[in-house]
Design brief:
This protein has one domain: SecB-like (Bacterial Protein-export protein SecB), CATH 3.10.420. It is 27% helix and 37% strand. The chain has 2 helices and 4 strands, in the order ββββαα. A 4-stranded antiparallel beta sheet has the order 1-4-3-2. Helix 1 crosses helix 2. The radius of gyration is 20 Å and the shape is elongated.
Length: 150
């Protein structure tokens, strides 16, 4: 009788998560900390960088988030964060790596980056900046469409 091993399930393993770079600027303090009579203008920028590591099927996925807040009178704050994770893609076909790394991996680490941004803005004297959840699938599909048009 032959033993049949069940095929191993696809799996994403997070081997590490870390802050690569964090910067918070409060350029007009204490003037910027006065009562805000209306919500500030927030400009938010997000970028994703994926690097293949020397070990097979290991990748670094880095989220870069920059938020700038201002009102009519002051630059309120600037926060920049590079937050990354080391991922091992186990039993995932190579042709699916790009999609998994661009959608599933950033979605796994985003809540941690979001919390760091919230905490640092609050520690800087402002209301915590709560970034809305991000649909990385939509961003990935949009990027594919843009690449197809070029």
């Amino acid at each position: 009788m032959t033993e049949h091993k069940p095929q191993e399930m696809p799996h994403i393993s997070i081997n590490a998560q870390y802050i690569k770079d964090l910067s918070f600027e409060n350029p007009n303090a204490p003037g910027s900390l006065g009562a805000l009579d209306r919500n500030p203008q927030i400009d938010l920028f997000l970028d994703l960088n994926i690097v293949s590591l020397p070990e097979e099927n290991f990748y670094e996925v880095e989220l870069s988030i920059e938020a700038k807040a201002r009102n009519e009178n002051h630059k309120l704050f600037i926060v920049e964060l590079k937050y990354a994770g080391i991922f091992n893609l186990i039993n995932i076909p190579t042709e699916q790596h790009k999609m998994v790394l661009a959608i599933h991996c950033p979605a796994m680490i985003f809540p941690f980056a979001r919390k760091i941004i919230s905490d640092v803005t609050q520690d800087g004297g402002f209301q915590p900046l709560m970034i809305d959840p991000i649909d990385f699938g939509t961003l990935y599909n949009k990027k594919l469409q843009e690449e197809g048009q070029n």
